[in-house]
Automatic annotation (TrEMBL):
The chain crosses the membrane at residues 42-69, 90-111, 126-148, 160-181, 193-215, 248-268, 306-322, 342-362, 368-386. It is found in: Membrane. The keyword Coiled coil does not apply. It comes from Rhodoblastus acidophilus. Gene3D superfamilies: Cytochrome Bc1 Complex, Chain C. Belongs to the cytochrome b family. InterPro entries: Cyt_b/b6_C (IPR005798), Cyt_b/b6_C_sf (IPR036150), Cyt_b/b6_N (IPR005797), Cytb/b6-like_sf (IPR027387), Cytochrome_b (IPR030689), Cytochrome_b_C_euk/bac (IPR048260), Cytochrome_b_N_euk/bac (IPR048259), Di-haem_cyt_TM (IPR016174). This is Cytochrome b.
Amino acid sequence: MHGLSTFEPKNGVVKWLEARLPILSFGYDSFVAYPTPKNLNYWWTFGAILSFMLIAQIVTGVVLTMHYTPEATMAFSSVEKIMRDVNWGWLMRYAHANGASMFFLAVYIHMFRGLYYGSYKNPREVLWILGVIIFLLMMATGFMGYVLPWGQMSFWGATVITNLFSAIPLVGDQVTVWLWGGYSVDNPTLNRFFALHYLLPFAIAAVVGLHVWALHVTGQNNPDGVDVQDIKKDCVPFTPHATMKDGLGVTVFLLLYCWFIFFTPNYLGDADNYIPANPMKTPPHIVPEWYFLPFYAILRSIPDKLMGVIAMFGAIAVLAFLPWLDTSKVRSAKYRPLYKKLFWGFVLVGIGLGYCGAMPAAEPYVTASRILSVLYFGFFAVLPILPKFERTLPVPATIAEAVLAKSESVKTAAAK
């Protein structure tokens, strides 16, 4: 997958630059000539979609920062001013707010694709762990951004989540006071969250850079989970093959993104957040954004506060250990019948937890959340012993062989 650059400067200026800063050859080797497995499907376009969404969030966020006032008595009205008085402010606000949901939708699909095709297995362990770190940073950024409009759900969501840190033994109360900047959620809290929400996307961009670097070191996984044996037979250049496919994937995703922005901009939000924050009046049902709901359901399913916090963060942290929990030698679920069933069960559990998290903390949702939480962690508990019972299907020796076999099956089906 690696070797000397094939980039050849065509004029004197480019040759001069390449001798001093070989950035053009780096771009050429990374996004033009980079060998890409020829059997990649459209699930692999979500890497490009996520890159687009990260840029969109940073750009719209910087523009909004120019007009937002991070002060408790003015934050809500400044958001309204952005919507009503700033040129194209409504577009920036809706693009940023819905962009967060689109970002998480794409990252969940990207992660489930990695789970299905075994993209966390050797030699891509560091690549996967960097992805989990990006996910954690996204969750922190998304939560802090949700607080900034300083509506009812923003204020009380911040109150509930920051209070969780008080459950940490010995230092919990001190950590909570530090997060608040005082003894309750107030102006110092808003200032802290605004500063962190502005800075964290750049930290995400830095880790994304490491993620892409790790990808280029190990090479991309593929739907058959087969290592590249012969670059000429198994791979095609990134451009135009992958770029055309990524371009189509981004375009289709952009249509969905624009549909939310222009037709249902508040569908994924909460109506209570259009009410100014009132510390004296608690909303009847405090609900976080949809992308936090599965973990919120796990938190609520455990009566003990500390254990609930441990379970919630453990549900994310356990993802980093997947490369060592799954001991099967076969990567792709295409050739693992039992794992494929287990995977789709895991997807349904995640959806079920999300639904329970959106419902009131009452029966039957509490019991359902507990059962689904056990099944969630059960997925990871079963992985180490699954290979002992699973009879895998024959795996192609090479990517070229897998592509030829698929081509033959398509011709056979067409003939029938």
